[in-house]
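Q: Can I see a sequence and its folded structure?
A: Here is a first one.
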Amino acid sequence: MTTESSSSHSNPTESQTGKIDTSAWKDIVLEYQKPSVGRATWQIVNTLGPYVILYYLMYLSLSVSYWLTLPLAILAGGFQVRTFIIFHDCGHGSFFKSRLANDIFGFITGVITFTPYYHWRWQHSVHHSSSGDLDRRGDGDVWTLTVQEYLEASRWKRFAYKLSRNPFILFIIAPLFLFIVMHRFPTAKASKRERRSCYWMNLAIFTMVASLSWAFGFKQYLCIQITVMTVAGSAGVWLFYVQHQFEDTYWQRRDEWDYTAAALQGSSFYKLPKILQWFSGNIGFHHIHHLSPRIPNYNLERCHEAHPLFQSVKPVTLRSSLKSFGYRLWDEQNQRLVGYRYLRELRRQQAVAAQN
């Protein structure tokens, strides 16, 4: 069993202190942080337009057969993922130059994706400020334990952890629960504005659901909406999972944590086929996004291609990303994610050592 991580992330600007020189990228990203009204408007048109059309076609198809509705719903799920990327950029204030425009379209796309705009924006900012910090886990990330924490955990906690990491729970049940149930309630730490954001969004969603149920019929609407949200939620959670859950990702304790290293080493470059890259709004260039959340999604690829530092991040492909299913725990000693098989082998070696 190897004790070294097979690093796939090259860091040519890493200093002797182990931290990456921020001057190598800060000036470069400035050019790509400038929003474009034309690009943003066209993205809204080519995303929300087809989504509305597909919704109407699904309504018509229900009178024929659900088997005709299903492929339309899957396609609509892809457009809902793209809608969430617009929502996401508005939350970062990067989609439009105008703050008001970002807030308006952030709210509209929030209704479509069942996500409270201001509340999510606040929580997501915490994720960006703490991603890769072992001492600040638990806000906007996938529950991740270290090997030592898992070994020391109670039987109940280990069971809960395994359950939460089960692919069916993580990618099917959890997304639906997150968007339908959890987003309806503000968290305990939320400010008044974030709390109001949840309440106003709930009212807007109720109005939308009631209107579409009246137009389509409640059962018909429910059938369409659950299918679309299942597809979009599963795809969205998978994207988020792969963006930070790969073998040699980045986790450090607070005193060793570095923002730039967390972005370039702890956020993947998920190289997808062009059609999937389009539907996911270029979010596969996640290393660029974490370097500078102010870069709109339509500028991420151009920024990635602007400097060798960004291109030095080895891509995760669609095929290689499937390995992420097996990663469960962070091995602090070897600085890599490992699976339960590694844990069994570790226990076996410890038992042999104890006997000797």
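Q: Show me another, different protein.
A: A second, unrelated one:
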Amino acid sequence: MEKLIYSLVSVKNNREALNALLAEMKGISGGDLFVVATDEVAAVVSDIERSGFATDRSMAIEYAGLIEIMSQQFTLLPVRFGSVMESSDKILKMLERNYHDIQQNLQKVDNKCEFGLKILCDPEGIMADLKGKTEAMINTNVTPSAESKNSVYREWVNKKLHEHRLEEMMITFVDSVIAALSVSLVRLNAIHKFKKLVTAATIIDAVFLLDKEKKEILIQSVEEIEKQFPGLNFILTGPWPPYNFVEIVLK
């Protein structure tokens, strides 16, 4: 029977503890969870019939919940939902082929957890504020000649200049928020990834990887930075398993 893989786990000297935890849990569709292991690395799997395996949102949530429970007690690398291999033997060979890379990734996330941060704005409000500033800059810095100030060409130039200034100011503003966050992240020795201007309302979508015991410090730091930027809404989530910090392509 084929095997659904949930996570790659560092077992070291605690394989018995992992087996005990899995004995209290059930996998997708009620299947038993068990390990396929080599040395200090194990894959947590359950039997699955691929032909009858129909993925949906509720199943993905159940799958993520199982990984989260495991991550509370063990260092692990989450595996993409729906990762299926033909047999335990093939999983074992995969672990052996990728052992070094798996170990490196496990060491990177050891005793760490992931947090997500979305920073939202009122698109109309922030754009109105920036438009007012760009218009002031253009009126101050650009003096059209008498011959061209009412021409179609001049209107087109002003429009493009306005759009360019608006874009520049938005990027500068977002960068200032990231800079404020980065100061705190350096102090926390956190690994971070930022996405800027994801949508009109989501100006920053970030993930952080940091030591588990620094959770409260991170929360306080984010709250303090939010006070510096009234009008922005900071949404911090976590802790999560390190989904965004697994940097391995299994061979």
